[in-house]
Amino acid sequence: MNHLDAEYDYVAIIDFLPEADRRRHQLAQKLMAYLAKNGVEQNCLTCRTRKGFLTALQWLAIESQKGKKFMLQFIGHGETNGLDMPDDAIASWRQVGALLSRVRPETISRSILNMTCCWGINAIKIADHLPLETCFFGVLGPGREISFTEGYKVNTKLYKKMFAGAPVNQIVAEINNEFGQRILYNITAAGYRKLRKEQH
Question: Among 98, 100, 163, 194, which has the highest number of CB atoms less than 10 A from its own CB?
């Protein structure tokens, strides 16, 4: 992932875990507490349906029109073709892209999408449905299924290293080394589009 020099007003967390998982693991709550402890502002939007999830993205688009800049973090269950919503619906990459396209270009083009979901790196496929100038900078996410414990550990390591000013490529390499396996991947939207073009 190329170097991104960006400052954010807050981390925008969208939590779309089923209620039972949310209550049992409290992943978003723990990460919000971790960010707050380190002086990082955060907004958490909790969604119980696909409609609620898409409404949360609409709210962020409105926030961006006010000049707000944010890093995006999705917490929930994912698969290769989209995101599993608590109401058993799927939010496809196309649907997610349609809402992200409403985020102000100056905001979305500097935003990293941090996927705390199984198979989260597949969110880069959202870039297939967005013009590059209105696409997020890049995606961070696992390339396999992850446990809630792994999700928390990956994110605390990720944010700690970000606070220290380390570049994303270095952060990903260090986290994978610390886990002793390749758990986290990263790719820019521009890099993904280039790869797709070379394949066709």
Answer: 100
